Amino acid sequence: MVLAAWLHERDDEWKAQIATASLDPFRGYATALNQQLPHAVRVLDPFHVTKLGLTALDQVRRRVQHDVHGHRGHRGDPLYGIRRILRRRADRLSERAWGRLRAGLVAGDRCGQVTAAWTIAQDLMRCYQLRDASAAAAVITAARDCPVPEIARLGRTLHTWRAEFLAHFAHTDVSNGPTEALNLKIKNTKRTARGFRNFGNYRLRLLLNHGRIQNNHQTSRIRTRRPSLVA
């Protein structure tokens, strides 16, 4: 595991300074942190938890769409038409968006499964907005007891990561958002360059692009048609 090997190379004094560690819901990260930083509090990153909830919602919507129409979403299908509205927080919806949401669910969600999944996803996002650990614990219970299979699986996942999930509400300033932002910049640099064959050149380009090395030297003056005046 790359993370475990990297942490193993750090000295004990450096490790002792780490009090909290933000991570994705990936067991390999948890194992590495447990082995190398056993004293640190592991905190599940809010972005990835929210992403799990919205992904489960999308899976329910696609399944119901296929069960009703026999094909994946097409333009004009009720659930396909509200796919982006379903992923937005309820308190940020306009009156027009609320109308579209209600109409789409009435027309396309006859079994009520998409509505149930949407409710759980909204509750999951709301607990972060309220910073309420009790509300987060209630989401875990509601998701596990939900008859919709995709949401029940989400509930089992959150229950498995319960300690790390609830730890966020005691350490609300912990997030790996900056890491994700830098990772996106790295990917964009690699994509723009069409790949690097030499790792040294790749690393240097990343450092130049993203602030660790300041490329602020003055550019050379261009010689004009009258070089005697430039000298």
Brief summary:
This protein is mainly alpha-helical and 231 residues long. It has helices at 2-9, 12-16, 27-36, 46-69, 78-81, 83-86, 95-108, 113-130, 133-145, 149-160, 162-167, 177-192, 199-209, 227-230; strands at 20-23, 41-44. The protein is built from 14 helices and two strands.
Task: Write structural notes for this entry.
- The protein is mainly α.
- 65% of the residues lie in helices and 3% in strands.
- The longest helix has 24 residues.
- The chain is globular, with a radius of gyration of 24 Å.
- The N and C termini lie far apart (59 Å).
- The model has no long low-confidence stretch (mean pLDDT 87).
Number of helices: 14
Distance between the termini: 59 Å
The helicity comes to 55-70%
Backbone shape: globular
Mean pLDDT, all residues: 87
Radius of gyration: 24 Å
| Major sheet characteristics | 2 strands, parallel
Secondary structure tally: strands: 2
Structural class by helix and strand composition: mainly alpha
Topology:
Layout: H1 2-9, H2 12-16, E1 20-23, H3 27-36, E2 41-44, H4 46-69, H5 78-81, H6 83-86, H7 95-108, H8 113-130, H9 133-145, H10 149-160, H11 162-167, H12 177-192, H13 199-209, H14 227-230
Parallel strand pairs: 1-2
Helix pairs in contact: 1-3, 4-8, 4-10, 8-9, 9-10
